[in-house]
Amino acid sequence: MTDRRRWLMAGAVLLCSPALTFLPVLAARAADPATYGPAAPSTAQPALPASQAAKATPLASSPHPPRKTLHNRLMDAEKALAMAGNEKQASEISERAEALRSRALTGSVQMLISDSHDALEKHDFQQAQDDLTAAITIQPDQFVLYRQRAAIRLAAGDSNGAIADLGVELQVDPGDPTAWGMLAEAEHERHEPEAALKAFHQMLLMNPKTPDSDKQLKTLEQARDGQQD
């Protein structure tokens, strides 16, 4: 598939109250009434009857809506990505979604990811995979890590291992277009053109403005048609 490197690296990369000045004055006045003179006459209004007071009581302000969870914010970003009007807008939304996916990663996990990237650049696939496996051990609930390990496994030629990791990621985050694109690549590498096309079409549903998608789709269709011949 064209731009294979782009899919692999995309999967691997991963992010005071105002002063109350009148209080001392009131305290001093209470301590020495003669110095400050008599208190100003009260301007308070006479008490209203209970029935009128109830009507005059203003309604309590409505409570603020609950803050959206990280998962809900990611879902909103994925919905916006599916409706993006152009590639530039889609790229900006995609970057925001990626930042949300990585928001909860701890410092130690981010260091392991960085080490994994360095190893991947040196084509040390085993070390890169070991670093991601260690990261997953620390934060097994951060499923984007499975996608990153899948990218390493796919680069190392382990399509089956990549598909296993992508299955874990997509079960939790089915709106991740990068994972669907990588799944299409992995199925293509396994010579499963129908499965590859199905995954690729799913990716296009998540991000219709994927760059170079026409060429990639044509490559997958040719692989399917050639196998049918």
In short:
The protein has 229 residues and is mainly α. The protein has helices spanning 4-12, 22-31, 33-36, 50-56, 70-82, 87-101, 107-121, 125-138, 144-155, 159-172, 177-189, 193-206, 213-228. The radius of gyration is 30 Å and the shape is globular.
Describe the secondary-structure layout.
Blueprint: H1 4-12, H2 22-31, H3 33-36, H4 50-56, H5 70-82, H6 87-101, H7 107-121, H8 125-138, H9 144-155, H10 159-172, H11 177-189, H12 193-206, H13 213-228
Helix pairs in contact: 1-9, 1-11, 5-6, 7-8, 8-9, 9-10, 9-11, 10-11, 11-12, 12-13
Description:
The protein has 229 residues and is mostly helical. It is built from 13 helices and no strands. Helix 8 (125-138) packs antiparallel against helix 9 (144-155), helix 9 runs parallel beside helix 11 (177-189) and helix 10 (159-172) runs antiparallel to helix 11 (177-189). The two termini are 20 Å apart. 28% of the residues are buried. Residues 5-10 and 13-45 have low confidence and may be disordered.
